[in-house]
């Protein structure tokens, strides 16, 4: 057993001791989270910490390479089970799709579209799924754009396309809300690292329209790419 893994268990013990048992009482037999978040699997992106989620049963968290909301099934593409479950079975009415600056999954997909890259089968499968949504975005980029800027534009584009898939599905009803944000730890949007920047609300991408319809979001509304 490595020192690193032993330390993880020690940290868990500290976590358990910081909770009072009563905090789990209301969720012993079920859950009814208010929101489901779909985040990219990245060690730099603190999915729970970014929204100070420390309450059991409050947020249903999902993560995968490229913050995808869909998966490939025998019947074709479908909203992934981890996203569908809280929407169908626990009464959750809010979805938050969380991209992030400098996304490795978006970078790999971009490079694969442009030049082709070799990856193990599991990663290849994820890239191929992302390519279904990002190819048109890559083609829409200016010819002289720097790679880092291209990636961060495509991060927004990917969030948009994931939300588009959700809204086109039968899983998401008209009463549900879908929010698209980008987590910035690279000073791309501002110098306040760790901030979530709103880029999409229920499929709407126009910052002025969003600020008009949801003025409480205006302070964090920030898009880099209008297409």
Essential attributes:
lyase; Beta-carbonic Anhydrase, Chain A; two-stranded antiparallel sheet; 37% helix
Can you put this structure into words, describing what you see?
The protein has 227 residues and is α/β, with parallel strands linked by helices. Helices cover 37% and strands 19% of the residues. The protein is built from six helices and seven strands. Strands 2-1-5-6-7 form a five-stranded mixed beta sheet, covered by helices on one side. A two-stranded antiparallel sheet has the order 3-4. A hairpin with a 2-residue loop joins strand 3 (70-73) and strand 4. It is globular. The protein starts with a helix and ends in a 14-residue tail after the last helix. The model has no long low-confidence stretch (mean pLDDT 95).
Helix % is 25-40%
CATH C-level category: Alpha Beta
CATH superfamily: Carbonic anhydrase
CATH topology-level fold name: Beta-carbonic Anhydrase, Chain A
Chain-averaged pLDDT: 95
Query: What string, H for helix and E for strand, traces the elements in order?
Result: HEEEEHEHHHEEH
Radius of gyration: 19 Å
Instruction: Give the number of domains.
Output: 1
How many beta-strand runs? 7
CATH architecture: 3-Layer(aba) Sandwich
Strand content: 15-25%
Helix-and-strand structural type: alpha/beta
